[in-house]
TrEMBL record, chain A:
Cofactor: Mg(2+)
Ranges for region Disordered: 1-59
Record-given protein name: small monomeric GTPase
Pfam families linked to this entry: Ras
Membrane topology qualifier: Lipid-anchor
GO molecular function terms noted in the UniProt entry: G protein activity; GTP binding; metal ion binding
Catalytic activity, reaction form: GTP + H2O = GDP + phosphate + H(+)
Main location: membrane
Family to which this protein belongs: Belongs to the small GTPase superfamily. Rab family.
Segments of skewed composition (Low complexity): 9-56
Any single GO BP term: protein transport
Localisation: Membrane
UniProtKB/TrEMBL annotation, chain B:
Domain Rab-GAP TBC: residue ranges: 79-269
Keyword Repressor: no
Name this protein carries in UniProt: Growth hormone-regulated TBC protein 1
The keyword NAD is annotated on this UniProt entry: no
Gene name as annotated: GRTP1
Function, as annotated: May act as a GTPase-activating protein for Rab family protein(s).
Key words, A-Z: GTPase activation
Molecular-function annotations in GO: GTPase activator activity; small GTPase binding
InterPro entries tied to this protein: Rab-GAP-TBC_dom, Rab-GAP_TBC_sf, Rab_GAP_TBC_domain
Taxonomic lineage from the root: Eukaryota, Metazoa, Chordata, Craniata, Vertebrata
SUPFAM superfamilies xrefs: Ypt/Rab-GAP domain of gyp1p
Length: 266, 347
């Protein structure tokens, strides 16, 4: 190779990609559509399904190229209308920073990794950020079937983004895996003045579909870590649950840990 | 008032001449910008630029047209000097002719009735288009956001079957930076989306999906080891190259390199995109093959668009015409046809 220098040499922004993650076949059949009751989705076979989808086997820690060890890896996708804050939520979680006015519209699909410690187990989340504009869905929904978890976002200051949740949920039911972990997030709750979607509206919709729900703010950081941690816990428990271990209750965990929009702002 | 205006200009000039922070197009350089490599490159590139400027001045003197000829093609491949870029793009793309045949059309679009949903979608991307470019900041004077908004709204109403697709904001933004003229940017955008590129941006994005498949086929023919790697790991091309096509390498490759690619794109058409993509992949074949898993492969595809190989735009542009070997338009058209049929059958 005639490269004078690896583009990585600058190092500062080298991403933390991993050693062992997925290699799912593109020919895998699409999962059949399923009823909205997510909770009803059986736990049985989740482990096998996870293994089939390229989750790194537990027990033998893997080393990511950034030198970070992890035990299990999962794919998480961020979906929702354009401008609801998917990229900002991801950056807040990944780097603990808010991209005030310095981010660009996501075109196509992109990903970032983060390793979390969940009850002593290193869980690597490979988080896919997608373009929200409707026409890109035909490009991005091909990845739904590989995702172990989906974070579905709307913007509490944008009624249309909430009204579109039905369409997103239908799309997810059509293309995602049956046992995908799904969570509904109402983002931008720091914008109290501009809020047009009530918390109760989000709760009602979530209940209807049997998915956990929380309100978040990528700007203040409210519930951002919780959203990803809850997902990581659920996925880790599914993949590594011991026979006598009680089932992890995602809904209860979220209900217990979630913070209200009022309590985190100064 | 005059003094104020002068002062404003001076301030703007001072801001823009701060070479260590902002490039010639108004883009802030990232914190980790490699000045040493860049300056090394630029000192030799400056000689090229000077030589090209003299040649182009001669070519354009007296004669107002830029005829299709082997000489012009060669000149364009070697780079259009920035001071002539807008003019040459306008002429070779046919945008100039369309603009002259439709006087007042752009203005009429702006004054006409607007589709609220389209306008809303465009507004969502206003603050998300080049926040790293000082001329697109709200505080800039003039702020190019207004021009960007106008061009996109006008285009969305002109080409209703496309409307607005994310990615067009970046393309229109570059056109505005180069032409410094809304109407010309509009007609150049029309040349690109309406004539030069297949239907990348229409709601079905069939042209985009087709060309991604075509690239996959071309890689299979020209860099089979990479095609095999992608297949083994079940990675769809769209995952790593969709932005290359949709943004025409904006924000993927360095600005100067993108503009050199666009010089050829306006003159020679969409196959240039394949030449660039194939060159990037072929050149870094061994590097990409080091990856042993899905995320690492995705990472490699990000890394091959950075570094001296792509910064040295003059050498890079020579390579795109030699490295991938022969690439006949007939071959591409044929692959497009079969790929399109395959995609339609899959629906």
């Amino acid at each position: 190779m005639s490269r004078k220098k690896s583009p990585r040499a600058k190092g500062a922004s080298a991403s933390s990609s991993s050693a062992a993650a997925s290699s799912s076949a593109p020919s895998a059949a699409l999962p059949a559509a399923q009823p909205p009751q997510r909770q009803a989705a059986g736990h049985a076979g989740a482990e096998a399904a996870a293994a089939a989808n390229g989750v790194a086997p537990p027990g033998r820690p893997s080393l990511s190229s950034s030198g970070e060890f992890y035990d299990v890896a999962f794919k998480v996708m961020l979906v929702g209308d354009s401008g609801v804050g998917k990229t900002c939520l991801l950056v807040r979680f990944k780097d603990g920073a808010f991209l005030a006015g310095s981010f660009i519209s996501t075109v196509g699909i992109d990903f970032r990794n983060k390793v979390l410690n969940v009850d002593g187990v290193k869980v690597k989340l490979q988080i896919w950020d997608t373009a929200g504009q409707e026409r890109f869905r035909s490009v991005t929904h091909a990845y739904y079937r590989d995702a172990h978890a989906l974070l579905l976002l709307y913007d509490v200051t944008n009624r249309a983004s909430f009204d579109n949740m039905q369409a997103w949920l239908t799309e997810i039911q059509e293309y995602a895996k049956q046992d995908v972990v799904l969570m509904l997030l109402g983002n931008k709750v720091d914008s109290t003045q501009e809020r047009v979607v009530k918390r109760e509206d989000g709760e009602k919709l979530a209940k209807e579909y049997g998915v956990p729900f929380m309100e978040t703010s990528a700007k203040s950081g409210l519930n951002v870590d919780l959203a990803f941690t809850a997902i990581a816990k659920e996925l880790k428990h599914r993949a590594m649950k011991l026979p006598n271990e009680p089932r992890f209750k995602l809904h209860d965990y979220v209900k217990k840990e979630v913070k209200g929009a009022g309590c985190c702002r100064s | 008032m005059e003094g104020e205006e002068e002062e404003r200009r001076a301030r703007q000039a001072a801001r823009e001449s701060d070479v260590h922070r902002v490039d010639a197009y108004g883009f802030e350089r990232p914190a980790d910008f490699d000045y040493t490599t860049y300056e090394e490159f630029f000192s030799t590139y400056l000689v090229v630029l000077t030589r090209r400027a003299i040649k182009w001045s001669k070519l354009l003197k007296g004669n107002s047209g830029v005829p299709k000829s082997l000489k012009v093609k060669r000149y364009i491949r070697k780079g259009i000097p920035n001071e002539h870029r807008a003019l040459v793009w306008m002429i070779v793309s046919g945008a100039q002719a369309h603009m002259e045949q439709n006087p007042g059309y752009y203005q009429k679009l702006l004054e006409g009735e607007k589709n609220d949903k389209l306008v809303e979608t465009i507004k969502t991307d206003m603050n998300r288009t080049f926040p790293d470019n000082i001329r697109f900041r709200k505080t800039a004077d003039p702020c190019l956001q207004k021009a960007l908004y106008n061009v996109l709204v006008a285009y969305g109403h002109h080409n209703k079957s496309v409307g607005y697709c994310q990615g067009m904001n970046f393309i229109a933004g570059y056109l505005i930076l180069i032409t410094k003229n809304e109407e010309e940017s509009f007609w150049l955008l029309d040349a690109l989306i309406g004539r030069i590129l297949p239907d990348y941006y229409s709601p079905e994005m069939l042209g985009l999906k087709t060309d991604q498949e075509v690239l996959g086929e071309l890689v299979r023919m020209k860099v089979p080891a990479i095609a095999e790697l992608m297949e083994r790991h079940g990675i769809m091309w769209t995952l790593v190259v969709s932005r290359w096509f949709i943004c025409l390498f904006i924000d993927i490759l360095p600005v100067e390199t993108v503009l050199r690619i666009w010089d050829c794109l306006f003159y020679e058409g969409s196959k240039i995109i394949f030449r660039v993509a194939l060159t990037l992949i072929k050149q870094h074949q061994a590097f990409i093959l080091e990856a042993t898993n899905f995320p690492d492969i995705c990472d490699k595809f990000k890394q091959i668009t950075k570094g001296p190989f792509v910064t040295e735009c003059h050498t890079f542009m020579q390579k795109i015409f030699t490295d991938p070997g022969s690439l006949k338009m007939a071959t591409i058209e044929k692959l497009r046809e079969t790929s399109r049929e395959k995609l339609i059958a899959q629906r």
